[in-house]
Fold this sequence. Notes:
3 domains; mainly alpha
Amino acid sequence: xxxxxxxxxxxxxxxxxxxxxxxxxxxxxxxLTLYGQDWDKLAERGLIENDFCALCGNDELKSGYYRIPxxxxxxxxxxxxxxxxxxxxxxxxxxxxxxxxxxxxRWYKILPTYFQPDESVIQEVENFRSRFSLEHDFLAxxxxxTPWSVKKLQWFMLKKIRTEQPTWPEKEIWKSVIIxxxxxxxxxxxxxxxxxxxxxxxxxxxxxxxxxTTIVKDFKSFVEVVNxxxxxxxxxxxxxxxxxxxxxxNNILENISKAT
Length: 260
């Protein structure tokens, strides 16, 4: 049977461990899309529970279904009960993805669907990997660190929230996308920054969350939301790339031709 109070308490515990403020509106399947590195940190602290469904709290796990977060080094397993598996269509999605991925490189299969590049550039990305003798896992990680991936993720979140909240006004959805992005930053706000990056402070991130309604007020399209979030990452120097390898990869993904 469903036990929502149990899974809500579980989510609150994990969010608290990551330094994220828990809210009732965060309680849906979107929370399973926390970054793989965050699930790994939770696993290292022994906080992962495997005896009930991560979506509804049901402890009847007959078929042994589970989901593994993208980029989880430890391949953390999140149990899913039979009812939620069928209700969310995870089985159909997994089969369709398996069919679509047939014959593709391993780096492509590692990536979550929202980071998988267009068919037209797959071979060029593979040529890039071969040229620099990059491991598949490393290339997948590189792709997730590009400006291209930041944009892709925001469009994915737009579509996801629209589906989950069909009655919300468009700007309320844009606001939610911004808050979701800021919550991701809150997860690492207290960790040592990446090389040469200057991440926003916890106070600055919370200030953006509080002002999200005002921020989207004059935006005319979602492109402006994406550019706003991308500009923050650039200011934080999130795309530090002294060798310009990441920049070359990003140009391939964006399908930008080099000037001759």
